[in-house]
Structures are given as structure tokens and as C-alpha cells.
Design a protein that fits this description.
Blueprint: E1 3-9, E2 20-26, E3 35-45, H1 47-54, E4 74-81, E5 93-96, E6 99-101, H2 107-110, E7 121-122, E8 134-138, E9 143-145, H3 151-154, H4 160-170, E10 178-182, H5 188-197, E11 201-206, H6 209-217, E12 222-225, H7 230-241, E13 244-249, H8 254-263, E14 264-272, E15 288-291, H9 297-310, E16 316-320, H10 324-332, E17 339-343
Parallel strand pairs: 10-11, 10-13, 11-12, 13-14, 14-15, 16-17
Antiparallel strand pairs: 1-2, 3-4, 3-8, 3-17, 4-5, 5-9, 6-7
Bound molecules: zinc ion (ZN) (2 copies).
Residues 46, 48, 72-73, 98, 159 line the site of one zinc ion.
């Protein structure tokens, strides 16, 4: 049996205790003839891994079992294909989103919303994750990545990118629509750019001035430092911009979500792209609050195409795979500008 290096989580624990252990485990092998074997070149580090590893999301059933290899936005080279594979050939570059597999049979799958499938398998919630050297996947759940796209550029598109893209679409973008983006990190900095591609007027909100500088550089029409003094903050937005047409929330914070809902005009849309709990809103204002989760394989193809054609920027910093614990610690301490990417 061939082996591979992996950062394995055997028990949820605070990241300061280095819960990910560098291990040599059996390399994944093609088991079904419609699968491909990918040699991973890069895997992004998503905030949700921090929650999963530290056990914050046990009440949501995450992780569903242990041990796991975390990591759910990865890109690599196809090194082997099953007999029935038609979508890829050896040598192609391919990427995987958090959706590793779905049933392809249920109502959601038939509607092209396979990411909502009840029997889906999530990348990084078993030994099939990205913080390692190899992974297998059914061809339909991998997406082609053009040869000219660097792996550390492409990897973050497979969770941060698609999440941002879908959230912007959910806000019904159109030219000059005033969209507020709350939370400018790995996902938010992509959302600013997707909204600009649609011609929207983008206002970026973050607690962190560095993140706002990034948003401004990427084309945001304005940016404002988020303040928990809600009344003053809302007045400040109104004075400068009037009420927003739509808001997208990436910051996992109740006060941010509540402020976002109140910043939108009557009849407007609020898109929650994070764990939204304890929402309150006034029904008579006819606002629409909607959730959003990654996206479909078709959405992923769109993301790759738009990023390639429009030359969107992905801000990433690379680290060796072995540094996964340190990188997650940095993420916890807000020391990552946008996205960290692990290179095996
Ligand atoms: Zn993610
Ligand atoms: Zn299904």
C-alpha cells in the first residue's frame, strides 16, 4: 500500500494544543471506475475548519466522525483515472469544493442544487480531506481548472470563491444596486469583486481597517469601519448612502447580522452566508432574508470562468502542509489577511 502525509485530527481540541498530527496513512486509491485520483497541489484554510477542529460545531454534527483530514477547497493534478472517466485525463488540473459527493437522485440533486442533498458527503469530514497529498473523487464532483491558473490562486475559489459568488447572486445584483458586504476576509474580498463584475455599488464593512483597505483596492465604492454602537452606525450609513438595497453577511456575529438587516431598505434582500442564529426582523417591512451555502458544480464552473476572464484577485499566503496548526492559530488571531493556502 502506498502512503501519504496527512494532517490528521483524532480529537477536537483548541488549536493552541496542536490537535492536527502529521501522520503517514494509506494513500487513497480509485475504488469506482468513475473516480479520479488527484495529487493535491494546494488546499485553502477555511474558517469553518477552525470551528470543526475546536469542537464549536458539535451541536451541528460537525465533524460527523473522527479521525478526519480537514480541508475542503483543494486543487491538484489528476494522476490516475478510472475506466469510465470521460471528463478528465491524466495531467489535467482539477479542484474539489466542500461537496465531495451527492446522491444524484433526489429532488435537490435533480434541480441542480446537489449541495442541499440529504445524503451528501462533505470534503474534509472523513479521511477524504485536503490537508494531505492525495484524494479520490467521482468525476462529476470535480471541476476542471485551467492550466494557467496557479494552484494557490485556484484553491480558495473552491469554497471562498463559490460561496462569495452564490451570495452575490442571491442578492439579485444589477448595475448600480447598492450592496453592503459585512465581513471582508477570505470570502468577503471575493464577494466585493463579484458584485463589481455585476456593476453594483459596493459598500464594505469590517471591524478591521486593513480589510477595508483591501476592499477599497478591489473596487469597493466606499468602506466603513463596523461599530457595535448600532444607532450611530446606522445613522452614519444613512447619512452617507441612504438605506442599502441589499446586504450580504459573512461575519459570524449576531450584532453584525442584526445591523445588516436594519441597514437595508423596506423590501430589500439580506443574504446570510454564515451561521445565522437569533435573527429578528419586522414582517411589515417586507424584507427578504435568505441563507446561502456553497453552490453547484455548474456554479463552480462559472466561478472559474469569471475569475479567469475578469482577472479577479485572490489574496492568499502559502504555507507548508506541516504548518496547518500554526496557520489555523493565526487565522484565529486574525493574522491572516484573506486566505491561507497549504502546500503539501
Ligand atoms: Zn470553507
Ligand atoms: Zn441527492
Amino acid at each position: 500500500m502506498e502512503k501519504m502525509r496527512a494532517m490528521v485530527l483524532s480529537e477536537c481540541a483548541p488549536i493552541e494544543t496542536n490537535p492536527l498530527k502529521l501522520s503517514e496513512i494509506d494513500r487513497h486509491e480509485i475504488k469506482k471506475q468513475n473516480e479520479i485520483l488527484i495529487k493535491i497541489e494546494a488546499c485553502g484554510v477555511c474558517h469553518s475548519q477552525l470551528h470543526g477542529i475546536e469542537g464549536d460545531w458539535k451541536h451541528l454534527g460537525i465533524p460527523p466522525s473522527l479521525p478526519t483530514i480537514p480541508g475542503h477547497e483543494l486543487v491538484g493534478k489528476v494522476v490516475q483515472i478510472g475506466k469510465d472517466v470521460t471528463k478528465f485525463k491524466v495531467g489535467d488540473r482539477a479542484g474539489i469544493t466542500p461537496l465531495l459527493e451527492a446522491c444524484k437522485n433526489c429532488q435537490y440533486c435533480n434541480e441542480g442544487k446537489e449541495y442541499l442533498c440529504e445524503s451528501s458527503i462533505i470534503t474534509g469530514e472523513s479521511l477524504k480531506g485536503g490537508y494531505t497529498e492525495y484524494i479520490t473523487v467521482i468525476q462529476d464532483f470535480a471541476t476542471k481548472v485551467p492550466e494557467n491558473m496557479k494552484p494557490e490562486y485556484a484553491a480558495p475559489l473552491f469554497c471562498a470563491g463559490i460561496t462569495a459568488f452564490k451570495a452575490v447572486k442571491a442578492a439579485h445584483p444589477r448595475p448600480n444596486k447598492k450592496i453592503g458586504i459585512f465581513g471582508i476576509g477570505g470570502v468577503g474580498h471575493m464577494a466585493v469583486q463579484f458584485a463589481k463584475v455585476e456593476g453594483c455599488d459596493v459598500i464594505a464593512f469590517s471591524r478591521n481597517q486593513n480589510h477595508l483597505d483591501v476592499a477599497n483596492r478591489l473596487g469597493a465604492n466606499d468602506s466603513m469601519v463596523f461599530s457595535e454602537n448600532q444607532e450611530n452606525f446606522l445613522n452614519e450609513i444613512k447619512d452617507k448612502h441612504g438605506m442599502l438595497d441589499a446586504a450580504i453577511v459573512f461575519a459570524p456575529s449576531d450584532i453584525v447580522t442584526d445591523t445588516a438587516i436594519k441597514s437595508v431598505k423596506k423590501g430589500g434582500i439580506i443574504v446570510i452566508a454564515t451561521i445565522g442564529e437569533k435573527l429578528s426582523f419586522i414582517a411589515f417591512e417586507e424584507k427578504t432574508i435568505r441563507g446561502t451555502l456553497i453552490g453547484s458544480t455548474k456554479d463552480m464552473e462559472q466561478v472559474i470562468k469569471i475569475c479567469n476572464e475578469e482577472n479577479l484577485e485572490v489574496i492568499s499566503e502559502t504555507y507548508p502542509l506541516e504548518k496547518a496548526n500554526e496557520v489555523l492559530k493565526k487565522l484565529k488571531d486574525s493574522q491572516i489577511e484573506a486566505r491561507a493556502v497549504l502546500i503539501p
